[in-house]
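#onboarding

Welcome to the new folks! Below is a worked example of what a typical request in this channel looks like: someone posts a single protein sequence, and someone else replies with the predicted structure as tokens. Don't worry about understanding the tokens yet, we'll cover that in week two.

Example request:
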Amino acid sequence: MCYGQCARCIGVSLVSLAVLCIVANILLYFPNGETKYAAENHLSQFVWYFSGIVGGGLLILPPAFVFMGLERGDYCGCCGTVECGKRCAMLSSVVAALVGIAGSGYCVVMAALGLVAGPVCRDAYNQWNYTFVHSEGEYLFDKSSWSQCIEPKNGVEWNISLFSILLALGGIEFILCLVQVINGMLGGICGYCCTHHQQYDC
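Example response:
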């Protein structure tokens, strides 16, 4: 097994996931493509925690680039040998992976809380509030209750869809970073097995 090539594949995957997280989080600010709800502060507080932009996005990109650079880097500093340098680089990637775990974990937790709380809606009493906050997430499985959210139109579906996407993407990022922790430790301890003539599958 080539630990460097595995790290590169993880890095490429994380870049794509991070971009998707950022896009999903940005879309949460514009229910039905309208800007007025953000301007009037009629959005869930969990939208403003930037779980996808920061947690699943910006905190994932640096580790991803570190992983992508492991395979092609010129390592010679550690102990004066290339092989030792590669081992040191693989071990140091564990630290980057831990940053990714923290970011993706934050994304998952905030997305889950956003799903449970539900969107901020205008109800039948013309009040803007968390219409489903006392349902403890049961509204997710009771589609008939969604009609309580009068405005924004399709606001419940918008909220559920995008927070679910963030939850799923953050979960995948978390798993990939955890895999890199294991991969980095194995690469550092057992040796960096790749050669300069290896073929890239990613």
